[in-house]
Amino acid sequence: MVVRWLAMLLALMPGPWPWGRPAPGRTAFLAAARREWVGRVGLLRGFPRRDKLRYDPAGRPLRTLRPGPWTLAEMRVERVNLRGGWWRLRGAREGLLLPNFESVSWHEALAVRVRLGADPLNRATIRILNRGIFISMAELPAAVPAYWRHFAGGPSPTPRRHARPVRGAVIYPSVVYDPNPGYTRAARRFGLTGGSEIGFLVGLDGRAHQIQILRPIGLGLDDNAVRAVRSWRFQPGRIGGLPAAMVAHVWVNFHFWRRR
Q: Is the pLDDT of residue 54 over 50?
């Protein structure tokens, strides 16, 4: 008798039920959400480093996101559930090999939870969450750091100096201090080697200014290359015996050796 009364009570509950099963009225919408998200690869807005993310019903993060390289911020959605008042998206973090935008995975789990709001569940709900959690490629030029703008297609401070007649001997800048960049964990796991082409202006102070990534490699290595170039020191170039700011291009190479 007790079991029968419990069954009747649960049948009348609007849900979500305590252990997380969606109410019958939400089953169809959950199926539609799974068709929309499962198997999708999207670039996470804000390029978060964290592997566990929480958002409000409008798709705004509930915690301040610490941004990382955008080439390490893709998510492949593998499961979608509606449980305990939250959307739950689980999948894997992926990265981008550039310049061909090839997605690769190193099997790092990623979990996203979105709190349900008071609004009815419909297609508009999915669109709001998509805009809040994922960023479109059209938005990318304005979202990436300034040193990515040349590659991403946005307005960039292209390295340049004011043209003037060249009189006398030209001596180009020379490097006097150039520490190597570090590897990202993803690039090391994937075994990525190669180089990133960086353009910049060598100022009269012997530092790199107006840095731009010209030809990237991906998986976060380009951001490390920029950090390394910022720490480099140069002997400024000279024209006719006078110091002069000059444009320079360098390849920052990445190689590592595995222990046998």
A: yes
Distance CA 165, CA 17 (A): 78
Which region, left, alpha or beta, applies to residue 155 given φ > 0 means left and ψ of -120 to 50 means alpha?
beta
Task: Check pLDDT > 60 for residue 3.
Answer: no
Quickly list DSSP for 70-115. GGG-EEEEEEEEEETTEEEEEEEEEEEETTTTEEEEEEEEEEEEEE
Domains defined along the chain, listed by start? 15-142 (no CATH), 147-162+169-254 (3.30.2420.10)
Which of these, 66, 75, 77, 65, lies nearest to 95 by C-alpha position? 75
Residue 68: φ, ψ to 5°: -125, -165
Angle, alpha carbons 8-14-17 (nearest 5°): 80
Residue-wise pLDDT tens digits, 125-158: 788 888 899 999 899 999 999 999 999 886 655 5
